[in-house]
Here is the input.
Amino acid sequence: MERTEVLYGGEFSDRFRQAVARNAVLIALVLLFAVFTYLTGGVFLSVRNLSNLSLQTAAVSIIAMGMVLVIVSGNIDLSAGSVVGAVGAATAVMQVQMGAQPVAAISVGLVFGLCIGMWHGYWIAYRGVPSIIVTLASMLALRGAAIAITQGKTQAPLDPGFLWIGQSYLPTLGLFPNDTTIIGAIIIGLGVLMVAVKRLGGSSAWKRNKSNAAQIMAIMIMIIAIGGVMSTYRGMPVPLLIVCCVWLVLSFVATKTVFGKQVFAIGGNARAAVLSGVDVKARIFGLFSLMGVVTAIAAFVFTARVGSASASAGAMMELDAIAAAIIGGTSLAGGIGTIGGAIIGALVMTTLDNGMSLLNLDASYQLAIKALILLLAVWFDTVQKRRG
Here is the structure.
């Protein structure tokens, strides 16, 4: 009897530890919400602040989702923040100084981002230069380009049609107040549920894997609850809808296309991928080209939310995106990562920014705390890799 109890206790302890490890990010996010709600006297959890939080999270989330694929392939992109600054500057200058319409400005920005990504892909894939060096060079060059494009001046005001991307909320259908917000949240929540059931292998596997099922159900309920909360303010922000669209597209690319599966294979074992007939150079070139487009989309959302463009826009954003990807479960060793996890990681990073700003914490302390979070995230990833 005693031996049986010991074995049962040990098994329970292992399962508990594994459950905590799998849900560590969600647990950390809940704790952050609780701590900042207490320290701000409830201001953090106000509807208005939660709406602002979703706006602030959008750009980092978009970059982080692209960063997942880059890191999964065994590479890194240190230029994302500078790309945001340069693309945002070019887009703003076209509107402010040239009178270009939003569609034309966005089109040029997308091409600009694509060209930057292709430039990275060429040097990394076909010239064998490490991604950290190529993107570090671009980080410096593009920051200089942003200064040259803006001439060191803030570019504003931007076209109202362009500002809609980063500042607007979904209009109502007239059925009931903020009906599009609630309907949208329900659709997204049900979408998460359907994807989860399919990935777990159907309803039978769903019943067997109760831990994952509970986690996905919690995420679905959280999405619907957020929609309900936002419906009491101004509705669902357009940037949040853009994040969902990018998530759906990149998740499809990562899990349902040959390209995505080969990117994961390259990160897992590049030599084995080559022997399997994967054109590694073409895939890396395509991956960084995709990252350029994704970062350009983030630049539009960020620039539109701020309402202007400056040479310093997007500074350090690449570190937030990298940290978000790692916190969301992406391994720096490559081959492991999820697009959805990056969104949760981005929410953790933005929650820190938002909460510390509400507390009027000195900027130096904010940077130090975020640096510590990044260090702990990498350490946790290393520990998990050793245990695996």
In short: The CA atoms of residues 360 and 366 lie 10 Å apart. The two ends are 32 Å apart (CA to CA). The mean pLDDT is 83.
